[in-house]
Amino acid sequence: MAKDSQFVSQIADIETNFPQWYTDVVLKTKLVDYGPVKGTMVIRPYGYAIWENIQHELDRRFKETGHENAYFPLLIPMSFMTREAEHVEGFAPEVAVVTHAGGEKLAEPLCIRPTSETIFGNMYSKWIQSYRDLPVLMNQWANVMRWEKTTRPFLRTSEFLWQEGHTAHATEEEALEETMKMLAVYEEFAKTCLSMPVITGRKTEKEKFAGAVATFGMEAMMHDGKSLQAGTSHYLGQNFAKAFDVKFLDKDGVQKYVYTASWGVSTRLIGALIMTHGDQRGLVMPPVVAPVQAVIVPIAAKKEGVLEACAHLKARLVAAGIRTVLDDSDNSPGWKFNEWEMKGVPVRIELGPRDLEAGKMTVCRRDTLIKGELALDEAEHAIAALLKEIAENMYNTAKERLESRIVEADTLDGLLAGVAGGNFVRAGWCGCRACEDKVKEFAQATARVLDAQNTASTCVACGKKAEHTVIFARAY
Ligand code: ZN
Questions:
Q1: Same domain, 299 and 164
Q2: Which of 78, 121, 267, 301 could hold 109 in an S-S bridge, CB 3.0 to 4.6 Å?
Q3: How many structural domains is the chain composed of?
Q4: Cα 97 to middle of ligand 1, angstroms
Q5: How far does the centroid of ligand 1 lie from the alpha carbon of residue 429, in Å?
Q6: Is the peptide bond before 114 cis (omega within 30 degrees of 0)?
Q7: How far does residue 116's CA lie from ligand 1's centre (Å)?
Q8: What would the mean pLDDT of 85-97 be, rounded to a whole number?
Q9: What percent of the chain has pLDDT over 70?
Q10: Is the pLDDT confidence value at 7 over 60?
């Protein structure tokens, strides 16, 4: 029993020390470990399985919307980065550069991709000749490197995994439509697969992607009320087309530059789902991407027939497409309950001689910790339905929290009080950079997205007429 209590107490208090809670949970549940090079992470099998499920769900959506996967090189000539002025300015401080290879100094330094707009632009200039070649709708699953000063597993690491969509279009309208379409794909994915509500909207000039005409983002609220940018979609206009000379002969016989868009989400999403749903016992996995959806714990495992019945139930659930584990280790049931609760498995099934006699199974759901009984012969349908219910309940709980923690402010003091209390703050903004900087300095909050419902009348920082209504928050 000492082992059980020790196990739980090893996680820091979620309310008073959320950063340490996060670190404890990601390490103890074996999602991730620190790599030997500072700022790098090793994604362990339990963490990588989440990424695989995220990939599977997103990849299907990308293909359904007409995109194809490709793979571009990790190394990009340094000269590419400098062709788009804003792009190089934004990324220069984070780029890792290869200067030597094969024992010799390279004629031209090569950068390790921080993102791939430049190399896609370079190749698109070769491949796109005519309006018949458009649109080009490509995505790649890859790693990227951005040298960061302060790092945290999944949230900010020098190397991370992501997908980056890069598309080229004949018209501005089509490129904008693509930008908004993929933002909507991300939002639906976050809701359905991560049970995570988000706020979407346009980013300010200060917060937009370096080289974009406009960036649209989705922001999620973490347990501590801070915001996490969970995905972005960029309308790039002709900025990269001009930098890489991507032209096509249009129907009217005129040579024109294409319009491009790019969009991405990363392994940051794993950090987002941990900090959206986790509780004092550890992870709470959204069922759709949970590596293990149901765990079977035998009770009185030595009694005749118990283990066999558990194995039989596991086989039935696996055959029904439910990711199921049978924990037949020699740890005590209490130890197993703690372990799988910490790992966030949505459904725990306990099966012992008494359950078998009654033709029932004892089921405990991770989101509410409520225990109940279900008929054993309906296990497949019952567990599938329960997983669906858990996913919906987790979404609704997170959505209620998000909605109850968006407050309004019309002064800097009000804004500061709002974000310090763990809220998003909706406030007016005149549109000038100085006021945006003032909010950052005064309240350590940034403009997350512009609110589509532009209802504010005065700027929170200077009191002049508001051009936009902004969702401000402290952010990861
Ligand atoms: Zn102002």
A1: no
A2: 78
A3: 3
A4: 40
A5: 5
A6: no
A7: 35
A8: 90
A9: 98
A10: no
CATH code: domain of residue 349: 3.40.50.800
Predicted local confidence at residue 8, as pLDDT: 53
Q: How far is the CA of 436 from the centre of ligand 1 (A)?
A: 8
Q: Which residue has the tokens 């695989």?
A: 52
**Residue range(s) defining the domain that contains residue 429:** 406-473
CA of 467 to the centre of ligand 1 (A): 9
Res 349: pLDDT? 98
Distance 420 CA to ligand 1 centre (A): 21
* Per-residue confidence (pLDDT) for residue 5, from 0 to 100: 45
What is the Å distance from ligand 1's center to 409 Cα?
14
Greater model confidence, 293 or 86: 293
**Rounded Cα distance, 25 and 13, in Å:** 11
Centre of ligand 1 from the C-alpha of residue 453, in Å? 19
What's CA 185's distance to the chain center, in Å?
Answer: 13
Neighbours of ion ligand 1 (CB under 5 A): 430, 435, 459, 461-462
Q: Do 308 and 436 fall into the same domain?
A: no
- Model-level pTM? 0.96
pLDDT for the residue numbered 4: 45
Query: Cα 228–399–437 angle (5° rounding)?
Result: 35
